[in-house]
Amino acid sequence: MDPERVRDLATLFQPKAVELYTYSHSTRVRAGLLAAGFHVAKGRGTGPKSETTIGLSPRAAALRHSHQLLGAEWLAKWHRSDAQTPPGADPRDDSWREAVRGHPQFR
């Protein structure tokens, strides 16, 4: 996952109601989606995965949907984690962490 490409996707999708589905439910992937500007929800499990991930553009998140957005419990887990930055991001770049902490999903 190239974190800059995910940011590009989030920018491209911002004016549209878009849902992005991924097989992963890793903290790094979810943090990357959040930091890029997506809202993030739990997805249904499939195969050996008990849970997957759904990224929603801000417009999609504002519409009525049945997805369970990540909340305070996930954010607390992320704060304790050593996997706070997305795959491929420089772990010394705090902009990713600041974007997750300040994400509207957690207000």
Keywords:
107 residues, alpha+beta, four-stranded antiparallel β-sheet, 4 strands, 39% helix, globular
Number of DSSP-assigned strands? 4
Q: How would the global form be characterised?
A: globular
**Element string (H = helix, E = strand):** HEHEEHEHH
The radius of gyration computed from the alpha-carbon positions, rounded to a whole number of angstroms, is 13 Å
Descriptive report:
With 107 residues, the chain is of the alpha+beta class. It is 39% helix and 15% strand. The protein has five helices and four strands. It has helices spanning 3-13, 27-36, 58-62, 72-80, 95-101; strands spanning 19-22, 39-43, 52-56, 68-69. The protein has a four-stranded antiparallel beta sheet. Strand 2 and strand 3 (52-56) form a beta hairpin. Helix 1 (3-13) crosses helix 2 (27-36) and helix 2 packs across helix 5 (95-101). The termini are far apart.
Summary of the model, kept short:
This protein has 107 residues and is of the alpha+beta class.
